[in-house]
Write a structure and sequence with these properties.
The complex is a heterodimer of chains A (about 300) and B (about 350).
Chain A: H1 16-27, H2 36-50, H3 57-65, H4 69-79, H5 83-105, H6 108-123, E1 126-128, E2 131-133, H7 145-166, H8 170-175, H9 193-204, H10 208-219, H11 224-231, H12 235-259, H13 264-277, H14 282-286, H15 295-307
Antiparallel strand pairs in A: 1-2
Chain B: H1 6-13, H2 24-31, H3 37-49, H4 51-60, H5 82-104, H6 107-116, H7 126-134, H8 150-159, H9 162-174, H10 176-191, H11 194-198, H12 203-218, E1 224-226, E2 232-234, E3 241-242, E4 245-246, E5 252-255, E6 261-264, E7 272-273, E8 282-288, E9 291-296, E10 301-304, E11 312-314, E12 326-331, E13 337-341, E14 346-349, E15 357-358
Antiparallel strand pairs in B: 1-8, 2-5, 3-4, 5-6, 6-7, 8-9, 9-10, 10-11, 12-13, 13-14, 14-15
Classes of the chains: A mainly alpha (about 300), B alpha+beta (about 350).
């Protein structure tokens, strides 16, 4: 492992000053009061987050060159409270932000509330332990600033939607007919242990991208075009791959069951029986039991770390 | 689409979700094809088992607007997988174009009809640009137009009496040479030397071929690329009517003879030069949906994931960075592409241009 002069510095830190000097003109940070040393500090922060300590200076240079530097500088200047940067930001993103919020929420008042809430976070109205917390400090230039804003909006929307779902009023529950106790569901057939094992083995043999394809299309019910857009491939390609995966999974599960001692006919029967009779509540299964950390929680932690 | 058995869906849904979620900028970078290698693989593994993060991704997708292909979800199970649907639509368009041209009669008439359409340059599809670039024709001959109003021809044929139709045809033939000059001049005004690549049209046979070439790919969101000045590329998708909402035309791209990257958002009526701080001279451009790559002198390579609103400079590099002029750029889809340099070096990428490998 190569390290710079300072043992605590990552290997890529050796050439960081030169890289910052090379890339500084591209970021246009002077317009918003960002100096070369400030820009170097920003690169250092981003690099510390995404680069390994033993990454070479050349790899770091490639990584930094691929960042959306101009948008990164704009975001950090906004976070620092530069007025010119805010003017540029509002001119460029204000309409887009409201439009994205409307696209996500599909309803005017919710969309406005969502966008206004994000604006408050972006302006840094929250103060934690005497320090202004600005969400734009978390943008690192990996994707476009617009894409990042859309993603943050989407995350906020999902978090709010989830929390609101837990606060459904009694009247709404009554309107939805939920005050009447539903009859106890009939006991459902359990998935045969051998079948579950065979399916798990088959699913584990797939690549991450293939599992993502299956989840997106069959669980999230996204269109071929949407899945294709996210993966950067054409919809017809998605369709072909899904067809192949379905065939592969069936074949793999059947073979696996046979290997466990079932005859071909028994394996087919088990698979067919399951399809007809199992009442799998996918919706319940999809409800994440461990939602992990929300953005707000991550933000709070990160700011705590910074201060610490 | 083949349905998956419920037991597979069941096991897929109960996959253990990761405890820690990726940050928003990583998700945004993933959606914009900016992640590669192990980082992308790790994120995909998380997404495959995390419904919340997938949901965030779906919500954060930009609205399918002008340049996004509209692909209607195929019924399941169905023979009409999307690729066949496009082929069918393209075939239907070719048949309509051919019938229209044959119905109009002799070669002069067809050529004159095309030549009388006033808006140059109009060839946007890959097939047409290849034809135009490889086989330049005399500028004095009529120019085939992509917007040849084929259905209109048929309507006119019904409405106009035969005699007046013949008279019109003769008049059109007589005006043929004169009118063919106009598009060339107009195209020159826009791009400097644009007309060289798209001018021409030698008679009915070639005009028909051009019309077919121009029509067929226009129905499919195929990747497109260009290296010759004046050749337009775009996410070839006509303005479609979806319900009552008519979508805007797709963004078109073109290189001027002096190396500027030009963009049109109104089907080629107006063109704006895209400003770059580095004053790059561009030599090649490739387009896949809203994603645009433009390469030029000194190894300059830029990428935009949003129809050219924002640009990122890419830096192809292996042991040494690429410094030669980029002469050709071809992308098969949003991730797989190749570039060729002036000395014939070939570089390829499998992650949308984030990293490149010398062949």
């Amino acid at each position: 492992m190569r390290h710079g002069a300072n043992p605590s510095e990552p290997a890529w830190g050796v050439a960081l000053s030169a890289t910052a000097e090379e890339l500084f003109p591209r970021c246009g940070g002077q317009r918003f009061g960002i100096s070369l040393s400030g820009f170097r500090e920003i690169l250092h922060q981003v690099g510390s987050k995404y680069l390994a300590a033993d990454d070479s200076p050349a790899a770091a240079r490639r990584f930094f060159s691929g960042l959306h530097l101009e948008e990164l500088a704009l975001a950090r200047a906004c976070a620092a409270g530069n007025e010119a940067a805010w003017e540029a930001f509002l001119l460029r993103y204000r309409e887009k932000l409201y439009s994205a919020a409307h696209h996500i929420a599909r309803e005017d008042s919710t969309a406005r509330e969502l966008a206004d809430g994000l604006y408050a976070d972006l302006f840094g109205t929250a103060v934690r332990e005497g320090k202004r917390v600005c969400k734009l400090d978390f943008y690192t230039g990996r994707g476009s600033l617009e894409g990042w804003l859309r993603t943050v909006l989407a995350q906020e929307y999902i978090n709010r939607y989830r929390s609101l779902k837990r606060l459904v009023s009694l009247e709404e529950q009554e309107e939805a007919g939920e005050q009447y106790a539903a009859p106890a569901p009939e006991p459902q057939a359990e998935v045969d242990g051998r079948l579950a094992t065979a399916v798990d083995v088959a699913l584990n043999s797939l690549s991450s991208e293939e599992r993502f394809l299956l989840s997106s299309y069959y669980l999230d019910h996204r269109t071929l075009a949407e899945v294709g857009r996210v993966l950067g491939i054409h919809a017809s390609n998605v369709s072909r791959r899904l067809e192949k995966l379905a065939v592969f999974l069936r074949g793999h599960v059947r073979k696996s069951l046979v290997r466990q001692g079932l005859s071909e006919r028994q394996a087919e029967e088990l698979m067919a029986l399951d399809v007809r009779d199992l009442q799998v509540n996918i919706r319940d299964r999809l409800a994440q039991k461990n939602p992990g950390k929300t953005f707000s929680e991550q933000k709070a932690e990160a700011s705590g770390e910074k201060e610490g | 689409m083949t349905e998956l058995p419920k037991f597979v869906l069941h096991r897929l849904a109960v996959s253990p979700a990761a405890v820690e979620h990726p940050p928003a900028d990583q998700l945004a970078a993933f959606v914009e094809q900016q992640l590669a290698g192990a980082e992308r693989e790790k994120l995909l593994a998380h997404l495959a088992s995390c419904h919340s993060c997938r949901e965030a991704i779906w919500h954060s997708l930009p609205e399918a607007g002008a340049s996004q292909p509209i692909i209607i979800r195929a019924a399941r199970p169905s023979f009409w997988i999307p690729s066949w649907r496009w082929v069918g639509m393209a075939a239907a368009a070719v048949v309509i174009a051919t019938v229209g041209l044959v119905y109009r009669g002799g070669p002069g008439a067809a050529g004159a009809k095309f030549a009388s359409t006033p808006k140059p340059p109009a060839v946007t599809a890959e097939g047409a640009q290849t034809l135009a670039a490889n086989a330049p024709r005399p500028a004095a001959l009529p120019q085939p137009q992509r917007k040849a109003p084929v259905p209109k021809i048929q309507m006119e044929a019904k409405a106009v009496p035969l005699k007046s139709k013949l008279a019109e045809r003769e008049q059109a033939s007589a005006n043929q040479l004169a009118s063919a000059e106009k598009p060339v001049q107009a195209a020159d005004a826009v791009t400097g030397a644009a007309a060289r690549a798209v001018a021409g049209g030698a008679g009915a046979t070639e005009a028909r071929d051009s019309a077919i070439n121009a029509t067929a790919p226009a129905l499919s969101p195929v990747p497109a690329s260009a290296t010759a000045p004046g050749v337009m590329v775009g996410s070839a998708m006509p303005a479609l009517v979806l319900g009552k909402k008519k979508l805007a035309p797709p963004t078109l791209w073109m290189l001027s003879a002096d190396g500027h990257l030009l963009r049109s958002t109104d089907s080629g009526k107006n063109w704006q030069s895209v400003p770059f701080e580095d004053k790059v001279l561009f030599r090649a451009v490739a387009v896949v949906g809203p994603r645009v790559w433009a390469g030029g002198v000194g190894g300059a390579l830029y990428y935009s994931s949003d129809d050219g609103s924002q640009w990122t400079r890419l830096a192809p590099s292996e042991s040494v960075p690429l410094t030669e002029d980029i002469r050709a750029l071809v992308f098969q889809d949003g991730r797989h592409g190749n570039l060729t340099t002036a000395s014939g070096q070939s570089w390829s990428t499998t992650d949308g241009g984030h990293s490149w490998h010398k062949q």
